[in-house]
């Protein structure tokens, strides 16, 4: 079988292909997946009148992340900070959308995925993927290049750039990475 030379040739031709599955790229993709679910969470909360902040749920998310991180050998305080940053970013997206809808006197949304059976499991899966890739991404995140890669807002999340900054900066700070001002460009 000549599969390995073919794969090697593809990787040489497509230089970005080898980077697509790095721990940093997987971490960023999981963070993007998590944040991308927040407009649907906001729609659910708009329809139900639920508050954006749910401290009991937030505590469960952090606790679950810390437990998962501990099993992977990631320090609990690092995981707690990372999970908290993701939660704060999520609340920024939800709050901004709900404020916009309040200003517009928006009607109730239709076809909103169920929070308990669809959204929370998807968000939980993304959170687990964040924690699962965190330890291996840490070395890259301690360098300006890796921190810059994570800080670059995914195109699909451009409307939520401020929330992305909170999520990314929280991860980078949690692992002892460089502040924005420490990295050129």
Descriptive overview:
- Mean pLDDT is 91; it is low at 1-18.
- By secondary structure, this protein is an all-alpha fold.
- Helix 3 packs across helix 5 and helix 4 runs antiparallel to helix 5.
- The protein is built from eight helices and no strands.
- The chain has one domain (26-178): Chorismate Mutase Domain, subunit A (Up-down Bundle), CATH 1.20.59.10.
- The radius of gyration is 18 Å and the shape is globular.
- It is 71% helix and 0% strand.
Describe the structure using short key phrases:
mainly alpha; Chorismate Mutase Domain, subunit A; 8 helices; 71% helix; disordered N terminus
Topology summary:
Elements (H helix, E strand, L loop, with lengths): L2 H11 L9 H14 L1 H11 L6 H18 L3 H29 L10 H27 L2 H8 L9 H14 L11
Helix pairs in contact: 2-6, 2-8, 3-5, 4-5, 4-6, 5-8
Brief synopsis:
This protein has 185 residues and is an all-alpha fold. It has eight helices and no strands.
Measured on Cα atoms, how large is the radius of gyration? 18 Å
Low-confidence stretches: 1-18
Give the integer mean of the pLDDT values: 91
Q: Report the oligomer.
A: single chain
Task: Using the coordinates shown, work out and report the CATH topology.
Answer: Chorismate Mutase Domain, subunit A
Count of helix runs: 8
The main β sheet shows up as: none
* Category from helices, strands and their pairing: mainly alpha
- The helix content is over 70%
How many domain modules? 1
The end-to-end span amounts to 46 Å
In total, the number of strands is 0
- Overall shape: globular
Q: What is the N-to-C order of secondary-structure elements (H for helix, E for strand)?
A: HHHHHHHH
According to CATH, the homologous superfamily is Chorismate mutase
Q: In the CATH classification, which architecture applies? A: Up-down Bundle
Supply the CATH class.
Answer: Mainly Alpha
